[in-house]
Amino acid sequence: MQLSLKFVAGLVLASSAAFAAEDNVEINLQRRNSFFSTGNQLNVNAFTTHQSQVNNKYKDALENFKRNMGRDHPLLRLLLGDKRNNGGSGTVKLTDVQQEQLWAGDVSFGGQTFGIDFDTGSSDTLVNPKAYDPKKSKNSKNTHDYFRAAYGDGTTAKGFIYTDDFEIAGLKAKNVAIGHSVSEFIQDQEPSQGIAGLAFPSIQSFPKKYTPFFEALKKQKAVNSGVFQFTLKPGKGSTLVLGKVDSSKYKGKVTYVDVDPSQGFWLTDAKINGQKIKAIIDSGSTIITGPTDQVRSMVKGLKGMTPFSSGGTLMYTYDCKNTPNVSINIGGTDFKLSKSQLFFGHANNGQCVFPVAGQDGLPMEAWIVGDTFFQAVSIIFDTDKNRMGFATQA
To answer: Which residues form the signal peptide (predicted)?
Structure first.
């Protein structure tokens, strides 16, 4: 399945940014494949691989935080090497097809254009070896700084950091850092050939002297302001706005909450069905994932939930005729998830899969709030005022 996702960029019109394109530049993005086969049956292998990737991403992020900040992250839950498997309480067979799902769009380094996933849960820009050839760019520079980042089931991105000219939606910046992996860490996942991080620098694996790509755009005044806004939809009309807030994407008021950039993540206090949680807002994760014990506690309040486990992930199914009630409260505002947002495909017994999961070995005391929630709200990420804004989609 392909889905058009457009970038709308708020551009600087001053002469100092003469290279900037006109306002309302748009790029078509694709929703990278799907976790579902015909009949909306969930692909268990693709999904558990994705969950493993998320787990490894956060383990790396906490290690990066300690190296960059000289202390453990306040959310640290487990020893990073601990891969305990507490299991689930049953098994439901799921159909295995070969598809996956993330949001991807085009960027350009050194005049070379390739697809990349936009991830508010990480900070570095990493690409596969064939996506970018530094030798083809007249302004590329090998810094000889080495990087290494775990990505999935034993898959690792590793290589050297280059700096080069960067462009996205007509917005340009010079000397932006890109990790050119010598090994393929994203396999068979066109159109994406890399990851572009939108979290804060304190969790980046690159040395501190390199800033994430959006910070580079901001420092070089390629954007009017340090804000970006995700509005993701299951059909057409999904957007990522850079450099401004587009009020046409939401209705009603925007609820703002403060964010501490020193912690690296887009992190806020929240409640899910009244249960207090720490929530990391992560565009690079598909569902809502929490520590297994906390997820079990939340699900106890729902009727008709059948647990199953796969690959260290505890999930649930429910009768499709009786969708559970789930709402997430942020900043005192309840955002109720709709029937379609709570549908994550079918198990082969005909029941619906619930898009809230417990993850064994999750290295921190926080929930990862992904695409399931993104499709209910328009989210404003404000690096100028260190805050996030949430509003119901228009």
So the answer is: 1-20
Spans of the chain below 50 pLDDT: 1-29, 79-101
User: Are 72 and 264 within 8 A, CB to CB?
Assistant: no
How many CB atoms sit inside 10 A of residue 251's CB?
A: 11
DSSP state of 337: P
**369 Cβ contact partners less than 8 Å away, ≥ 6 residues apart:** 270, 279, 280, 281, 282, 285, 288, 328
> How many Cβ atoms from other residues are within 10 Å of residue 197's Cβ?
26
Output the pLDDT for position 252: 96
Among candidates 394, 320, 309, which has minimal Cα distance to 359? Answer: 309
CA atoms within 13 A of residue 179's CA, in its CB half-sphere: 29
Q: Which residues are catalytic?
A: 119, 282
**First vs last Cα of the chain: how many Å apart?**
24
How far, in Å, CA of 378 to CA of 375, rounded?
8
Whole-prediction pTM: 0.84
Contact between 88 and 299 (Cβ < 8 Å): no
